[in-house]
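lol forgot to send this yesterday, sorry. C-alpha cells for the thing we talked abt
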C-alpha cells in the first residue's frame, strides 16, 4: 500500500494501526449506540406517538426558514446533519458556511397495509426500517444495503439494490414527498400533484427544499431468500447470463454478481421462500461468527459449482453490511479471522459515522491517492466494455454488479430511449487500485468520460471530477432548472446540484 507521511505519533497509530482505535473505542461505542437506538425506535413506534409530533417538527423547520427569510439572506441553506454522520464519502465543506437547518425527524410515521406503503421521516435509517417492517411481514421494494443510509439521503441522492431490476431506483418506488420550500411553505408532491417538483426532487441533493416525509412502496416479505450461486469463468458468459436474467419477463426477485477477476465471477439469483427447501442448506450469514459474505461467495467460484442456500431475510438484505462490502478488510485486516469473529464479531461493523469522525487527515490523503470508491451506472449492454475499461484504468476486485431499471420519467436521469424503461447495471468499485499508472484525477476522469459517452451516470455520494459542463451533460437539468426558476427564493437559498457535489466543496 502507498505510504503516507504522518505528522505525529498519534497520527502514525491512526494510519498504520487504525484497527487499535477501532477495536478499543469505536466498536464498543457503536454497539451501545445501536442498542439504545433500537430500543428507542421500538418504544416510539409501539406508542404510535410519532405522527402527532410530526406536524410540530415540520413547523420547527418552517420557523427556521422564516428566520432566514427575514434576515439578510447572505448565506445559503443546507441540513444541519453533520458531515461525519452522512454516508457520502467526503465531508461537505459547505456545512461550515451555509445556514444549517435542523431537520431532526427520525420516525417511521405510518405503515399502510392496504395501500402497501410506509410513510417515513427523513432520518429513518434502512436498518431501522427493515427491523420495523419484518415483523409485519413486509419489506421495502428495494432495501439499500447499509444500515445507516437514511430515507432523506436516498430520496435526495439515490438508492439501488438487488431487486432494482424490478422496482428501479429509490425514487421509482416513492409515491409522495412532503417538503418545506425556501419560502417557508409546506408542499406535498406526487405524480399527480405538483408533478414537476416530484420528478425533480430525486438527485437534487437538497437543492429544491427540505424533505420532511416520504411515502414509499412496500412488498410482502417471506422468511427466507432462496439464493442460487452460479460461478462463471469468462466475462462474456457471465455478462450474457447477467443480462438474460435481468431482462427476463418473469425474473428472479433478486439479482447481483460479484466479479473477482476480469474473467471470473459469481452470479446470484434469489427469491423469497416461506420454508427451507431440501434443495439447499440453511446459511444464517448475518450471525456474528459467520464468514464475511463476499468471502463465502468466492468459495463457490473456487469450487466452480452452482449451489443453493436459504438465507434469513434480514441477513440477506444486510449481507454486505458487516464487512462494509469489502472495505473493512483494509481497516481491520483480521476481521474475517474465525477467532476474531467468534470473540468480537458481534460488535461488527463499526458505525461508518464514527469511522468518519475519527479519520485523521493522513488517512484522508491516503484514500485520496490510493483508494477508489465509485459506483458507475451504465446501460446493461455495455457491461463487458465497462469491466474492461475499469480493469485498464483501476483494476480493483471484487466488483459489485447490480442490475436496475431506469423508468422513462422526467428529471435528471434522462434515458435515451422511447421505451418505458431501460436496464442499467451499477458497477461498484471499492478498494486499492492495482492498475499500472493509476492516478486519481486522470483515471477517474477517464472513467467518467467513458460513462458519459455511453449514456450512463455517476453516483454522487462518491467523488466526481467532472467539470460543470460535463456534469450538466451527464444529468439533464431541463426540468430541474425550470422548477428552480419557478420556486420562490429557491436559487437564493440553494446552490445548483454541482455546487454541492463537486470536489471543491468536499474535503
Ligand atoms: C450518527 C447516527 C445517527 C443515527 N440516527 C438515528 C436516528 O435518527 N434514528 C434511528 O432510529 N437510528 C439512528 N441511528 C442508529 C441506526 O438506526 C442504527 O445504526 C442501525 O439502525 C442499526 O441497525 P442494524 O440493522 O445494524 O441493527 P442490528 O444489528 O440488528 O441491531 C443492533 C443491536 O440491537 C440489538 N437488537 C436488534 N433488534 C433488537 C430488538 N428488536 N430489541 C432489542 N435489541 C435489538 C442487536 O442485538 C444489536 O446489538 C443513528 C446512527 C448514527 C451513527
Ligand atoms: N445502496 C445504495 O444505494 C447506496 C447509496 N449511497 C448514497 O449515500 C447517500 C445517502 O447517504 P445518507 O447518509 O443517507 O445521506 P446524506 O446525509 O449523505 O445526504 C445526501 C444528500 O441528501 C440531502 N438531504 C438529506 N436529507 C435531506 C432532507 N431531509 N432535506 C433535504 N435534503 C436532504 C443532503 O443535503 P445536505 O447536504 O444539505 O445535508 C445531501 O445533499 C445517497 O447519496 C446514496 O446515493 C451510499 C451507499 C450505498
Ligand atoms: C451503491 C452502493 C452499493 C454503494 C456502496 C458504497 C459503500 C462501499 C461505501 C458507502 C460509504 C463508504 C463510502 C465509506 C467507506 C468505504 C466505502 C463505503 C462503505 C469508508 C468506511 C472507507 C474508510 C474511510 O476512512 C471512511 C471511514 C471515511 C469511509 C466511510 C464511508
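and heres what i got for the seq, position by position
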Amino acid at each position: 500500500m502507498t505510504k503516507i507521511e504522518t505528522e505525529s505519533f498519534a497520527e502514525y497509530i491512526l494510519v498504520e494501526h487504525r484497527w487499535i482505535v477501532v477495536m478499543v473505542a469505536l466498536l464498543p461505542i457503536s454497539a451501545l449506540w445501536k442498542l439504545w437506538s433500537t430500543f428507542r425506535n421500538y418504544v416510539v413506534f409501539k406508542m404510535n406517538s410519532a405522527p402527532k409530533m410530526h406536524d410540530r417538527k415540520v413547523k420547527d423547520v418552517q420557523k427556521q426558514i422564516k428566520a432566514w427569510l427575514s434576515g439578510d439572506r447572505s448565506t445559503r441553506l443546507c441540513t444541519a446533519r453533520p458531515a461525519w454522520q452522512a454516508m457520502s464519502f467526503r465531508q461537505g465543506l459547505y456545512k461550515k458556511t451555509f445556514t444549517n437547518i435542523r431537520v431532526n425527524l427520525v420516525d417511521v410515521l405510518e405503515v399502510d397495509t392496504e395501500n402497501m406503503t410506509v410513510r417515513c421521516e427523513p432520518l429513518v435509517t434502512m436498518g431501522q426500517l427493515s427491523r420495523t417492517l419484518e415483523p409485519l411481514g413486509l419489506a421495502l421494494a428495494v432495501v439499500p444495503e447499509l444500515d445507516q443510509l437514511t430515507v432523506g439521503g436516498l430520496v435526495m441522492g439515490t438508492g439501488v439494490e438487488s431487486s432494482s431490476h424490478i422496482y428501479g431506483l429509490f425514487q421509482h418506488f416513492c409515491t409522495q414527498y412532503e417538503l418545506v420550500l425556501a419560502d417557508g411553505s409546506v408542499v406535498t408532491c406526487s405524480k399527480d400533484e405538483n408533478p414537476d417538483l416530484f420528478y425533480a426532487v430525486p438527485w437534487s441533493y437538497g437543492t429544491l427544499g427540505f424533505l420532511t416525509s416520504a411515502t414509499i412502496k412496500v412488498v410482502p416479505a417471506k422468511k427466507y431468500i432462496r439464493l442460487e450461486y452460479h460461478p462463471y469463468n469468462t466475462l462474456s458468459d457471465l455478462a450474457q447470463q447477467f443480462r438474460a436474467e435481468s431482462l427476463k419477463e418473469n425474473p428472479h426477485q433478486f439479482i447481483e454478481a460479484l466479479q473477482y477477476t476480469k474473467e471470473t465471477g459469481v452470479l446470484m439469483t434469489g427469491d423469497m421462500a416461506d420454508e427451507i427447501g431440501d434443495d439447499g442448506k440453511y446459511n444464517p450469514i448475518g450471525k456474528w461468527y459467520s464468514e464475511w459474505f463476499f468471502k463465502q461467495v468466492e468459495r463457490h467460484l473456487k469450487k466452480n459449482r452452482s449451489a443453493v442456500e436459504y438465507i434469513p431475510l434480514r441477513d440477506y438484505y444486510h449481507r454486505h453490511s458487516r464487512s462494509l462490502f469489502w472495505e473493512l478488510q483494509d481497516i481491520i485486516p483480521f476481521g474475517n479471522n474465525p477467532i476474531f469473529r467468534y470473540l468480537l464479531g458481534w460488535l461488527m461493523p463499526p458505525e461508518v459515522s464514527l469511522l468518519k469522525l475519527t479519520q485523521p487527515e493522513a488517512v484522508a490523503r491516503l484514500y485520496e491517492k490510493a483508494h477508489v470508491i465509485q459506483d458507475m451506472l451504465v446501460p446493461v449492454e455495455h457491461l463487458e466494455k465497462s469491466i474492461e475499461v475499469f480493469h485498464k484504468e483501476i483494476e480493483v476486485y471484487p466488483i459489485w454488479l447490480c442490475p436496475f431499471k431506469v423508468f422513462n420519467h422526467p428529471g435528471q436521469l434522462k434515458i435515451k430511449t422511447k421505451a418505458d424503461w431501460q436496464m442499467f447495471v451499477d458497477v461498484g468499485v471499492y478498494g486499492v487500485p492495482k492498475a499500472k499508472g493509476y492516478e486519481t484525477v486522470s483515471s477517474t476522469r477517464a472513467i467518467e468520460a467513458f460513462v458519459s459517452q455511453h449514456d450512463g451516470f455517476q453516483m454522487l455520494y462518491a467523488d466526481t471530477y467532472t467539470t460543470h459542463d460535463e456534469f450538466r451533460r451527464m444529468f439533464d437539468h431541463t426540468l430541474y432548472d425550470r422548477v428552480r426558476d419557478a420556486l420562490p427564493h429557491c436559487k437564493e437559498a440553494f446552490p445548483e446540484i454541482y455546487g454541492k457535489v463537486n470536489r471543491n466543496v468536499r474535503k
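Residues 79 and 101 are 5 Å apart (CA to CA). anyway ping me if u want another try
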